[in-house]
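Lab notes, practical 5.
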Amino acid sequence: MSFLDQLNQIQREAVQAIDGPVMIVAGAGSGKTRVLTFRAAHLLHLGVAPESVLALTFTNKAADEMKGRISSLVGVASKNIWMGTFHSIFARILRIECERIGYARNFTIYDADDSLSVIKGVMTALEISQQQFNPHALRSRISTAKNQMLTPKNYLAKVSDPIGERAALVYEEYEKRLLASNAMDFDDLLLKPMDLFAKHRDVLDRYHYRFKYILVDEYQDT
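Output from the prediction step:
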């Protein structure tokens, strides 16, 4: 009995459609993640190299569940699939490639409290009043800028309000201090790979050609 027999006809068709892009649109609880899991297992069953499969999820819980399900279907063959959240996969790439953008491989990932501490230090150095400008608000602005892929200079050109202007000034010095400390914040795990790929085409090509199959859970949220 094939493991595909566990699927209904429509799910099986989606799993077996491996040529070209496929988007699965269905309601909650209809088995979209199940299809994605079986699709990964089916690829390995067909002889696709595990390391050429990239599976992205939005939560660690979803990634762990998917790993367990695929392993139960195809065993140790699933071990070398690149699977995890966007942040964890990009962190893995950065651990390999970060020297190309000025970081050592043992870089530290700062949490929210660490980032806030650095921002407060920058505000003190720049003589920006923490009573007049809330450090949490500036941190939020910097985070938003990073998620919009804006550099400090680009962000400064975009803003016109007092908080935004102060955030841009802090952002620039904040980045310098992170680099000097060989540290990244959580937002950098998405921003720095984009910087890496933009500046180093050979690195981009390496991963472009490596991952033949990219599976994204909850794609509508990307």
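Observations recorded by the TA: The longest helix spans residues 162-180. The CA atoms of residues 24 and 32 lie 7 Å apart.
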